[in-house]
Design goal:
Blueprint (H helix, E strand, L loop, with lengths): L1 H28 L9 H17 L6 H14 L6 E3 L1 H11 L2 E4 L2 E6 L2 E7 L4 H4 L7 E5 L2 E2 L5 H8 L6 E7 L7 E6 L1 E4 L3 E7 L2 E6 L6 H16 L5 E5 L8 H11 L5 E7 L6 E4 L25 E5 L6 H11 L4 E4 L7 E7 L5 E10 L15 E3 L32 E3 L5 H8 L9 H4 L11 H18 L1
Parallel strand pairs: 11-12, 12-15, 15-16, 16-19, 19-20
Antiparallel strand pairs: 1-18, 2-9, 3-4, 4-5, 5-6, 5-7, 7-8, 10-11, 13-14, 13-18, 17-18
Length: 471
Amino acid sequence: MRAKFEKFGLITAGAVLGIMLSLNYSAVADKETKPQLPIDDLRTFAEIFGKIKSDYVEPVEDKKLLTEAINGMLSGLDPHSAYLDADGFKDLQAGTQGEFGGLGIEVGMEDGFVKVVSPIEDTPAYKAGLKSGDLIVKLDETPVKGMTLNDAVKRMRGKPDTPITLTILRKGEAKPIIVTLNRAVIKTQSVKFKLTEPGYAYVRITQFQEHTGEDLAKALKTMRDENKEPFKGLILDLRNNPGGLLNAAVGVSAAFLPKGDLVVYTEGRTEDAKMRLTAQPENYVRGGGDYLRNLPADIKTVPMAVLVNGGSASASEIVSGALQDHKRAVIMGTQSFGKGSVQTILPMNNGTAIKLTTARYFTPNGRSIQAKGIVPDIAVEEGTINTVEQGMNLREADLSHHLSNPKDGDTPVTIETPKTPANSQDDAKPADKDGKDKAADKAPMEPGSKNDYQFTQALNLLKGLQILQHK
């Protein structure tokens, strides 16, 4: 019987090896440089496949083994390449269109655990006080260690209004923090806006989605009509924005830059991965007309401040980097996350897809953001504990297998955060005896409010610039 199993395993492994070789050969046949196939390594793979089929303590389906092999192959490349099964592919598509189910957190994998990159505003996770850098170690009573990222995400998703308990570790806390959330259908409003006072506009972008550029244009027109004259200043808030669609980032940049200005360029191994995206409609419009064409001309010249922090990633860094390089805006806040790589979604024939890192992106002046982030022109630390900045300050450079950055930048001017006794007490407060974090029960600070220290500093800067212009 054992001999039969071994024979069957070797036959199966041989078939797999043959398919892999034929597919690999056809894939590289069109390349100018035809690399040698790693025949010995593929033989080892086939041998291990056969041994698992014949000797593992329980029978394992071929599909499971191959799926796990694909998962490992992609996750071992960098923190952002991943295999998406059919459900994961559908969830990704739903997320970019602004509606999906779950808790509302952007997550990554680190040393076998789930780490929070950024909570999405107005979601259960955000309202419960989850912070960037929180390490999720348990989902209900199930340890996360050993799960794939896809498995963990699936467990966090579920029917609306059903509860899930997260056990998290947070820097500075002596005990694990236990938070119970109710799942919800996440409908994210990517653009929020208001006139903070006559002449001063505030726009917050929470995520770069399919219609973010159009929504921004509508918001600017609405506020401009309400103000009835050119703005004296505009604050663009990209804090805790985990990124999103590249064309949306180009559209947002194009709203404030002269037509034709370079927004971002990418460098990769294939010709498709080498792009130069400028502030032209063909680089940000997906069908239909140019949604920026009717914006008042003064939007291109209004004094601007852009707010970023450690939760600002990817598309947020493209926008802030472009505006910084063109000296179109003053960047304020704290150093951003540092995700300067491009992921391409490659659909497979069976309804699955792979998310593969295919390029690095660079700002107009040739700066790589990868593993460094955007360094603000004026560093303003946050003045309240109820923000992402008081978490573990997780950044791209902290993730295993992250791509390197060969370049460096300058040190920003710093505005120190005033230390108040209340702030000092809260910073030192431990979790209670049940592991409950009392700070997490407080409502998060409202961005763009009078309690938002970074916002008030940006507003003060714009008012100061207005005074200097008049003089």
